Amino acid sequence: MTTDVVSSAVVPSHPAWRSLLWTVPFTVLWTWVIYSLPVLLESGLPALAVRLMVHALMALGLWLGLERTDLTQGQRRTTWLAVMVPFTLWAAVVWTAAINGVLRASAFSLPLLPLAIFLPLIICIPLLLLSKRMGQLLDAMPTSWLVALQLYRVLGSQWLVYWLLGLLPGLWALPAGIGDVLTGLFAVTAAVAVATGTAEGRKAAIVWNIFGIADVAVAIALGMIISPGPFQLIVLNGLNVGLDGYPNVLTPAFVVPGSILLHVLSLRQLRRRSRTEAWGRETRTS
After folding, report:
1. From CA 249, how far away is CA 137, in angstroms rounded?
2. How far apart are CA 215 and CA 212, in angstroms?
3. pTM of the predicted model, to two decimals?
């Protein structure tokens, strides 16, 4: 299967921007709740709930995508396990390290947080871009899935709450929080647009992916230059909840590289879909 089979019941009949009519109120409600009950952020329960939910959705989406391919049942099962087992182990290792303070800048002379951010990307990006099996999966999976999944980025409004409470400097919290919220809000909008199968929809999804990657790149860079460690360039005064302590460290150590990998997969899928459709047009006109 190389193209989406989209029925009239699936293709959105309303403008993509209308998704904001429910994503914006949801984001505002979430922000108000954690601002009113800051103990929720301190407990780490929202982070745990969100990560488990996204993990489950990824596992389900991967299996449903594999069912759309021409792979045998055994090949689907092997592929699913080859992706989900390392991903789950990675999540468990990062979570354990975060709870035990291993990722704090003061834990070791050489901070491990940058390693936790970049090592998964160095290992996984070449595999995701070169794997033929992953290409088969992306060809079979609707292009809207990988985009819509990142709705969870709206929960990054927590950084704005930390700033409002005077616990994080605006130099980091404002660009990181606003960037996350915008990426999450427009995830559904871009997903609805790309589901139409039009060139304009694909362009919207590509722009959204680039913006999402830029958002996390800015957050990583700013976090490194204001956090204690060998990369610190700016020392800020005042209260700071710390980006290297639990549960906040889960964002740079796990959520950030995971989000980048989803963006990379989405861009590869959009490129493959564009090439397939261009080849189809050439075949029909020849």
Report:
1. 32
2. 5
3. 0.89
